[in-house]
Amino acid sequence: MTRRDIDDCIRKSVEQYLKDLRGAEPDDLLQLFIGAAEKPLLEVVLRHAEGNQSKAAEWLGINRNTLRRKLLDHKLLK
After folding, report:
1. How far apart are CA 21 and CA 11, in angstroms?
2. How far apart are CA 42 and CA 67, in angstroms?
3. Which structural domain range is residue 56 located in?
4. Cα dihedral 57, 51, 46, 67 sign
5. Neighbouring residues of 42: CB distance < 8 A, sequence distance ≥ 6
C-alpha cells in the first residue's frame, strides 16, 4: 500500500462522512479523524512490534513516553 492509497482511503472516508451529514455543519473534523485513526494505528503497530513499546515508538516516529501516554489515553494500557 502506498501513501497515495492511504490518502485516497482517507479522502473517501471524509467525503462519505460529509455526505452522511446531509448538509449539517461539521464540527472539529480534524480532531474527529485524528482520534479515529490514532487508536487503531497504535493497536496494530504495537501488535506487529509484539508488544515492544520501544520498537513501536520508533516505528511511529515518537518518543516512548509519548507512546505510553497515547496508549493510556486510548485505554490500551492498564
Report:
1. 16
2. 8
3. 52-78
4. negative
5. 56, 60, 67, 70, 71, 74, 76
Give percent above pLDDT 90 in the chain.
94
- Does the residue 24 lie in any domain? no
Over 80: is that where the pLDDT of 29 sits?
yes
Does 44 reside within a domain?
Answer: no
Quick: pLDDT tens for 35-63: 899 999 999 999 999 999 999 999 999 99
Is there a contact between 46 and 76 (Cβ–Cβ < 8 Å)?
Answer: yes
For residue 63, count other CB atoms closer than 10 A to its CB: 11
Q: Is the entire prediction scored with pTM above 0.85?
A: no
Is 75 a domain residue? yes
